[in-house]
Amino acid sequence: MKAKREALAGLFTAMKEGKVDGDIIDLLLLINSINGIYTTSSCSGRIGIIEEPALGAKPLSGWLVKVHRPLEFEEAREALRDAREGLIFLKSQPPIFHIVAEDRKRAKKLHEIGLASGFKYTTFKVISSRYLVEINATEYLTAPLGKDGKVLVDEGYLRFAVEVGNSMLKRSKGRLPRLEENFRKLREELGEDELFYELAGDFEIDNWRIP
Known about the structure:
Elements: H1 2-16, H2 25-32, E1 37-43, E2 46-52, E3 62-67, H3 73-80, E4 87-93, E5 96-101, H4 104-116, E6 123-127, E7 130-136, E8 141-147, E9 150-151, H5 155-173, H6 176-190, H7 194-202
Antiparallel strand pairs: 1-5, 2-3, 2-4, 4-8, 5-7, 6-7, 8-9
Helix pairs in contact: 1-7, 4-6
């Protein structure tokens, strides 16, 4: 499958460049080793503070701080000193995986796995004859903090927002072991993809645990 070959090449290159979230690398390798499916963009979950020039202006937004682990209060307070223009939000977002399946049967299984693993926002759709499954959870938080460089909340509120965001991130990440377990069962059912192991050898990704 040409599309999977290109996706794997992109994943292995990104891994070597340190652009893949470290705590989901093993899971991504497992998913991509399964016959008939592959990942595109994925994130292990994140929390941070972002500036948006206007509501919904995502392409022009910029993170003041962004981490894939619990955010320290001092990190948040320090990042706010760099705020300059636009709306300021604290955002916490759960893990998300975009997975392409070669047929409807596999897409249905992916959808079922997402839901069974606790990712209640899991959906799938057909795009240009491809079945794209989005495994996503419900723990999203967006808390307004200020505007145009001016922080409009006190430290008590900021500390509270960081604590809530961290709790949501931990809760959503806590489902990852169950998701990995279910993908291991799916690999037993669908089998391994020889293309994955071929390219893993070509890209010499020996520093990671190959499933």
